[in-house]
Amino acid sequence: MVTMQKTLKTYATRVGLGLVGAAALTTMATPFLAGAAPVHAAELGSSHVSCPAGTTAKYDPEYGVPASLIGEDSKTKTKNAGTAYSSIQCYDASGQLVAYGNDAILYKFPASSLAPLGEKLYQQNCASCHGTKADGVLPTYSAGAYPALRGLGPATINFWITTGRMPAADPKEVQAARKQPRLNPFQANAIAAYVNSLEPATPGIPSVNVKDANLTAGQTLYALNCAACHTITGGGDALAQGTYAPSLHVATPTQVAEALRIGPGNMPVFSGNLTDDEVRDITAYVTESLAKPTDIGGVGMGGLGPVAEGFIALALGIGILMLVSFWVGERQ
Predict the structure, then answer these.
(1) Could you list the residue range(s) of the whole structural domain that residue 326 is in?
(2) ω into residue 253 within 30 of 0, thus cis?
(3) pLDDT tens digits along 283-330
């Protein structure tokens, strides 16, 4: 009888260790299995982007339309990289630029007719910090106490408002947190139209063609440019001096593209060094693959990553092993 109990105890120990090892190996292998899984890589759409109704388009010769070549942008010599130096530019009847871009992203400026409403909303929600003229100058503070908003482009204004970071709950906090927006998208566009009317600038608000994105390329670009701060799973992480890289799981395609082009907070600006095709691919990967992960290895556990998941597997495996061992010992 004693011999049989010892045999059972030895067997239980080996089985427990085997379960722990299998769980750990499965967890560690999950990211590699996910990386090897087939991903969508659509071909570029056959139809070209078109300008909004009522505007006049200037096309690049590569589109097969006889027109003068759009001049080189002064800030970058990279074409289709977030500036107006793009394959297509759209002008209204007064000759004002209202949109620009290409098949990957079309950047649009809010309608100038929204500026009067935007001014009222700005004075109610923004002027107390950014000044009545959006220049960062307040009557009771020196210039530069709060950032000026002139010349930042509609995408900057739209990003901070639609993510709920502005208007800020506490203007003096180290980093504005994402929260439920106080203003709706229409109101955000109106404020962006007003601020941009004071000093017109790019980037416009991006409309991203994610359906034609290459998720494989997006995964590679994300790992090279974003994962160091936002983590490989997009869950975000702490940085320095009370700042952090936020989670990307709730960001919309427009907000991801805006962030890449304007560099909010501590984030670098990726205008000029990433093309619109690359931004589109990253945007699609973030909003489709990271926000809606396929957990090939089983339960996703919130996307904690292989190290944390390995610890969980080890803890559960050792716990089960200890219970079995105690049970076999009690039987002696």
Answers:
(1) 2-37+296-330
(2) no
(3) 999 999 998 877 666 666 666 566 666 777 788 888 888 888 888 877
